[in-house]
Amino acid sequence: MSDEPVRKDSEIRRPNSSMGCGSKDDKASLASSQTMSLSPQPHQPSAPGSKEVWKKGGRMFSILLAVHLALLACTLVSSGAFERIAVHDYDVFFLLTVMMLIVIIWIIFYLISTSRCPDAILCKDSHAGPVWLRGGLILFAIFSLVMDVFKIGYYSSFYSCLSAIKIMYPIVQAIFVVVQTYFLWISAKDCVHVHLNVTRCGLMLTLTTNLAVWMSAVTDESVHKAHSKLKKNTTEELFRWLLKVGMRSGSTEACNCNSQICQIFKNGYFWLYPFNIEYSLFASAMVYVMWKNVGRFIDHHSHHIQRLKFRLFRRTFFVGIVLGLIILVSGLGVLIVYEVQVNSSTEPSKKGQALTMYYIFNIVCLGLMSLVCIGGSVIYRFDKRDMDRHKNPTRTLDVALLMGAALGQYAISYYSIVAIVASTPRDAISALNLTYALLMIAQHTFQNIFIIEGLHRQPPKEDHKRSSHQKELYGLTFVNVSAVSLRVPDSGSVSALSTGTEGTIPSDLVRSLTAPKKINWRRKLLREISMFLLLCNIILWIMPAFGARPHFDNDTELNFYGDSMWPAIVDICLPFGIFYRMHAVASLLEVCIMS
Question: What ranges does the record list as Polar residues composition bias (predicted)?
Fold first, then answer.
């Protein structure tokens, strides 16, 4: 039987915790219960549900609240995307505006209540909200604010024929982004112990609001992309099925965007939609971790706070960074050529050349990433670090998001494989498309294995202690190795050798000095692999997020599934694939720093 930690991570419901900071008697009883838990006691079966009662109460209610709000928002957003349904876009904007205002009020209440109550936050989750994740959130928040400015300028160009809610929506969204970003920056690690039920419901409302804003942004972007792709080859009757983004249903002619400034605002905020989409998903993930940590007590004996230093450019050969930058720059060039030849040119030959170039680049990139992930997984098999088996809601969410978001790209790839294999005739582009789909499945699978292996490894927390201890032994070795060996008793008893450095024999000394070099070689390779995969995932996120989508330009899938079914499949699945890339970037950065 392995020794259990003295005190495990547990979620304990404090008496009257939902009614404020709690009385003195509550605090005394809590302190006495914690003191008794530290003393050795015989194992007694706890009352059933005594530690899980909070999950069955406030947690279940907050989940039901989030489910109902998410379904309502999804219904309105999807209904507002079609003109023949009597749900207008300003109905969607009204719902989102009300939800964001409620969340802003709740965040202000949370910040005030936790600052006034000294026992509101008894501990913090060191794994939640790492600095690189919060930094990425701020970066996406800045671009989201710029998008809101463009939206305000666009709607203000013809405010006389628009509903007032359309101008209010980007203003409220900008305030929401600022308040939420500040809230997540300072509170992402909190384990709250006051107002438990209100906090759970507020966090779930915040999560649902971010998902609703994400659904609205994805729908608007999909409608805009479909409008741009089909405008060259279809009649206006088809577009009456689509939402005129930013226009009221009955006033399209009166609200035409004719000025140059209006066109700049319109094109600008559509180009910034990917950043707003990623911001909503990043915020949703961080809010979910906060929700999991409500009422949680952290055992600091088993939950070590790791002060990981940001040393990406130390102990590295720059091979992974250089190769990754080459892939990144090459991908940007391919994206520019693809946009010019496919979206701006009507010649079929140029379109075929652009598709061929796109598929060749992605095949090379995905092939290299697959091989590198396999190599990294093999290196992990020889890694001597222990597996981290402690409770970690952040890591659990990371793994779930990686596996879940990959399903979107899996679906697109399998649909493409079926269409290519069943279609005739087959040309060179179809062969490249088939190879691309197969490699996409393989790369997602191998990369998930590599990332999950890295996230479950213990960080090199003992390097500093080991290095200082080895420096002393290293000095003793060069002074007189025999002097160290003279300290070993002649009896050779194990008890004498277990006293510390005085029982260190020369062979163990040499082994302790040479072993870290082998470990450092492995860690350097893992860091190189992580940096290479990180840069590759960035370009594979940029390309589909900013217009390079061969799924709409390749006629094989369109002819096989039809002009309505295939675009719907891509519109549903592609946002998950785009989110997968950005979430993989954050996870790989964590793996790189922990290596």
Answer: 30-41
Residue 568, pLDDT score: 79
- How far is it, in rounded angstroms, from Cα 339 to Cα 549? 10
Distance of CA 94 to the CA centre of its chain: 28
pLDDT bin (cut points 50, 70, 90) of residue 60 is: confident
Which residues contact residue 95 at a Cβ distance below 8 angstroms, ignoring those fewer than 6 apart? 72, 73, 76, 212
Residue 121 has what DSSP assignment? Answer: E
**Cβ-contact 137, 279 below 8 angstroms:** yes
Residues 6+ apart with CB under 8 A from 112: none
* Nearest residue to 516 via CA among 473, 443, 466: 466
Distance CA 512, CA 466 (A): 9
Distance, in Å, from the CA atom of 100 to the CA atom of 173, rounded to the nearest integer, reads: 7
Residue 133 CA: distances (Å) to CA of 121, 184, 524: 22, 10, 23
**Rounded (10°) CA dihedral 124, 125, 127, 128:** -90
Question: How many other β-carbons are positioned within 10 Å of the β-carbon of residue 140?
Answer: 23
CA 413 to each of CA 213, 356, 419, 474: distance values in angstroms, whole numbers, following the listed order: 27, 17, 10, 56
Confidence of residue 44 (pLDDT cuts 50, 70, 90): very low
Bridge partner residues of 11 (DSSP): 296
> What are the b/e assignments for 339-375, b being 16+ CB within 10 Å?
eebbbeeeeeeebbbbbebbbebbbebbebbbebbee
Encoded amino acid at 341, one letter: Q
* Angstrom distance (rounded) from CA 3 to CA 22: 35
**pLDDT at residue 3 is higher than 50:** no
> Which tokens in the block code for residue 354?
């652009």
Residue 69 has pLDDT above 80, yes or no: yes
For residue 33, pLDDT over 50 is answered with no
Listed in sequence order, the DSSP H helices in 231-318 are: 236-239, 260-271, 273-292
pLDDT digits (tens, 9 = 90+) for 262-303: 878 887 888 888 889 889 988 998 999 888 888 777 765 444
Contact in structure between 139 and 177 (CB atoms under 8 Å): no
Long-range pairs, 407-411, Cβ under 8 A, ≥24: 407/573, 407/576, 408/572, 408/573, 408/574, 408/575, 408/576, 408/577, 408/579, 408/580, 409/440, 409/441, 409/444, 409/573, 409/576, 409/577, 409/580, 410/441, 410/444, 411/569, 411/573
Contacts of 297 (CB under 8 A, 6+ apart): 7, 9, 10, 11, 12, 122, 123, 191
Cα torsion 241, 243, 249, 255: sign: negative
Bridge partner list, 124 = 190
Query: Residue 560: in which H helix or E strand, if any?
Result: helix 555-561
Whole-prediction pTM value?
0.72
Q: What is the DSSP letter of 58?
A: I
Q: Quick check: 128 and 257 in contact, CB under 8 A? A: no
Residue 297, classed as helix, strand or coil, is strand
Buried b (16+ CB within 10 A) or exposed e, 302-318: ebeeeeeeeebeeebee
Q: Is the peptide bond before 425 cis (omega within 30 degrees of 0)?
A: yes
Report whether pLDDT(140) > 60. yes
Residue 10 pLDDT > 70, yes or no? no
d(CA 199, CA 206): 10
Cα end-to-end distance, the chain, whole Å? 31
